[in-house]
Design a protein that fits this description.
By secondary structure, the chain is α/β, with parallel strands linked by helices. It is about 50% helix and about 15% strand. The radius of gyration is 18 Å and the shape is globular.
């Protein structure tokens, strides 16, 4: 009965989410990059995703030696920070005895970061485009907001990096090469990496939506080699992350409200 109810919730949530997006009044850039300003007015409370996250993080934490000092968390594509605060709360709960959980949210949209800073003053919000940040030929370390943040905190890596439903936009805007570059960057910056991937069908829906609502296209979409239904796309991404020295330690059997799986990796070089 529980699984049937959750499946119903996911289907209804996805349908309502699509309908709600039509009324957001977002700009073309928001449609293109996913930085919707009214996101949390229409998205559900994320209770299923939060439960999955807590369950798996608790198991992972029991299997690892706890950090000696504060836990440093980075949420990539944080929007205005509502779920960032929830993730921090979950990490605090599963890491009993840890002095503190220091959270950082990164978003492409400065206005959303400003909203987050006002709502959650104990979380640091920084603005930046991950495709640009990860481009080492163009971005010097001194200009990298994540590098600056790490230097201020005197850390070499974040303990946990989260990417919830953001990599599709990276992939569509940056192509296979851009996504690989971003994954390289994130794998080098975190001890644990948690990703939530969107299906190929969702990519196709997003391409149609950009054309319908903004009259634009993703120029690199037709050239994507990482593609395909039935888990083919997700398999390409998971395999590449594993080739970067990351061990796949858990995949949620249960999916979130929007039929997406959470995938957990740990860095074999630092854990």
């Amino acid at each position: 009965m529980k699984n049937s109810c959750q499946l119903f919730t996911r289907k209804c949530g996805s349908s309502l989410h699509r309908k709600a997006l039509k009324t957001m009044g977002e700009s073309n850039e928001q449609v293109k990059h996913g930085n919707y300003h009214n996101y949390y007015k229409f998205r559900a409370e994320d209770s299923i995703r939060a439960d999955i996250l807590q369950q798996h993080l608790a198991a992972l934490w029991r299997s690892c030696e706890p950090p000696a000092g504060p836990i440093h968390l980075l949420d990539v594509g944080c929007n205005s920070g509502q779920f960032t605060a929830k993730v921090r709360q979950i990490v605090q709960q599963v890491s009993k005895g840890t002095p503190a959980v220091c959270a950082v949210g990164l978003d492409i949209d400065q206005e959303l970061c400003d909203r987050g800073s006002a709502e959650y003053p104990d979380i640091e919000f920084i603005s930046g485009n991950l495709l640009e940040i990860s481009n080492r030929e163009e971005m010097k370390p001194m200009d990298d907001p994540i590098e600056r943040c790490m230097k201020t905190r005197d850390i070499e890596q974040f303990d946990v990096i989260c990417c919830f439903s953001v990599l599709m936009y990276v992939h569509l805007n940056g192509g296979d090469a851009g996504l690989r570059r971003v994954l390289d960057y994130l794998c080098s910056k975190g001890k644990f990496l948690i990703i939530e991937l969107q299906s190929w069908q969702k990519y196709r829906d997003q391409v149609r939506r950009l054309k319908r609502d903004a009259g634009e296209t993703y120029p690199l979409y037709t050239g994507l080699e990482w593609r395909g239904n039935g888990g083919a796309l997700e398999g390409c991404i998971k395999s590449y992350v594993q080739s970067n020295g990351m061990e796949l330690v858990a995949e949620s059997a249960e999916k979130t409200e929007f039929d997406r799986q959470l995938i957990f990796f740990k860095n074999k070089r630092t854990i």
